[in-house]
Each structure stands twice: as C-alpha cells, then as structure tokens.
Amino acid sequence: MLRERGITVLQELCVAIEAGHVRLGNGARVACDAPVLAFGTSAPRWLGSSGLALDVQGFIATGRTLQSTSHPQVFAAGDVASRADAPRPRSGVYAVRAGPPLAHNLRRAVGGGDLRPYRPQARSLNLLSSADGRALLAWGPWSAYGRWVWRWKDRIDRAFIASYAVAPAGFSPAAGR
Fold it and tell me: What value does the mean pLDDT take over residues 52-66?
C-alpha cells in the first residue's frame, strides 16, 4: 500500500527535520516534501516517581485483576499499564477490551466481592483505512488489502460507536419512538 503511493519507510532514527529534508541518525539527509514520523507509545514521566511497580518500559505493572503489582488499591489498564503475567503489544484493541473487566473490578473493590481475572486475547485484529475505500488487515502473520477489508472495518467501527449510543429520554427502541 505504501509503495503503491510512493511512500518510503525508513527505519533509521530521525534526528532533525529541516527545510526540504530530514536528517537521520546515521548522518544521511533524505529530501522530502512532507515527512511523517511514527512513534511508539511511551509511559508518562510522572510514573517514574509514583512509587508504583513499573515494567522495564516504565508502564504500571499489573496482574490478572488489573491491580498494580505493588499497590493493590491502584487499578490500571490500557496505554498506561502493562500486564506482568501476560504482556501484549500496545494496541487500542487491548485497551478497549480491558475496559469492562476494569469497571467490574473497580465496582467490586469499592462495594465488596471477588475480583475477576482479565484474560486478554492472544492477538488482535488490526485494520487500517487507506482513505480511498480500501483498508489493510493484519492478523498474526496474515495480511490482506482491499475494498472488502474496508467494508469489514467500517461495519466493525460503526457497531463499536453504536454500542456507546444513548437513546434520548422517552425513546423506546421497541416502539420506534
């Protein structure tokens, strides 16, 4: 998809963006009109002085119930946390899926009751729109690209957004009003 659009991906670290080019860590200068830089996620700096147990990348280390491994009264999920017992790549899919178990365990921690372990799926489906009615799909080692992938992505995205819709007061889906 990137080659088709004349986009070159460079793995080298960019150390400067200058007029008409970027300067790379190996000393090379690459001419370009519109550089786009991609960064991975990083943990917020304040976590380093929080006293919480952190993983090697600085994210809050949590266990099966999404509690901090050092402070059981602290719960964390998503982009700020890392499962010590089940590490996964940084992905919005894992963050979104951790939401309901996190909410359940927070209610139980406040109101009493057993906490429920959260078991993240082994891999996630990644769908990326290419803004032309096509999308790229990645699932483990398998990938695909095309209009059918975009239609699937669109259906998944619309269902996800609709799941958060709140009906107006007085509206009854069964009655249609």
Answer: 96
Residue span of the structural domain in which 154 resides: 125-162
Q: Same domain for 54 and 100?
A: yes
Q: What is the spatial distance between Cα 13 and Cα 39, in angstroms, rounded to a whole number? A: 10
Give the residue from 92, 94, 87, 99 showing the smallest Cα distance to 60: 87
Contact 19, 30 (CB under 8 A): no
Radius of gyration (C-alpha) of the chain in whole angstroms: 21
Q: What is the spatial distance between Cα 54 and Cα 129, in angstroms, rounded to a whole number?
A: 34
Backbone angles phi, psi at 78, to 5 degrees: 80, -145
Asked if the model's pLDDT at residue 148 lies above 90, the reply is yes
Task: Tell me how far apart the terminal alpha carbons of the chain are, to the nearest angstrom.
Answer: 45
pLDDT tens track for 12-31: 889 999 999 999 999 999 99
| Number of domains the chain contains | 3
Q: Report the CATH number at residue 80.
A: 3.50.50.60
What lies within 8 Å, CB to CB, of 85 at 6+ separation is 63, 64
User: Is residue 13 located within the same domain as residue 55?
Assistant: no
**Which residues are CB-neighbours of 153 under 8 A, at least 6 positions away?**
127, 129, 135, 137
